[in-house]
């Protein structure tokens, strides 16, 4: 009878040890998951910010290209039998 009681107590102790181990693993997985979610949010935020800056730069480039194209209208005029081409910028 005493050995049966000791066996049951041993099983209970092993069960509690396993539960504690599972709790540590679960807690660690949750911490890793929280970190990864925070990292994902941070990266998305930074990428969105970079995307806004890139879009602004693209718009400026398009504007400058349009200005150059419009300003590159060659004005041809003659002056003392010489042909001059000037770019209006």
From TrEMBL:
The keyword Coiled coil applies. Its main location: cytoplasm. It is found in: Cytoplasm, Cytoskeleton. Transmembrane segments: none annotated. The keyword Coiled coil applies. Keywords: Coiled coil, Cytoplasm, Cytoskeleton. Belongs to the BRK1 family. This is Protein BRICK1-B. It comes from Clavelina lepadiformis (Light-bulb sea squirt). The lineage of its organism: Eukaryota, Metazoa, Chordata, Tunicata, Ascidiacea.
């Amino acid at each position: 009878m005493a050995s049966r009681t000791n066996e049951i107590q041993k099983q209970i102790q092993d069960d509690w040890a396993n539960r504690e181990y599972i709790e540590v693993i679960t807690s660690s997985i949750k911490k890793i998951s929280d970190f990864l979610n925070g990292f994902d949010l941070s990266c998305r935020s930074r990428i969105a910010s970079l995307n806004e800056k890139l879009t602004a730069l693209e718009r400026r480039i398009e504007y400058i290209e349009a200005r150059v194209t419009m300003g590159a209208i060659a004005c041809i005029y003659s002056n003392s039998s010489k042909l001059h081409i000037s770019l209006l910028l």
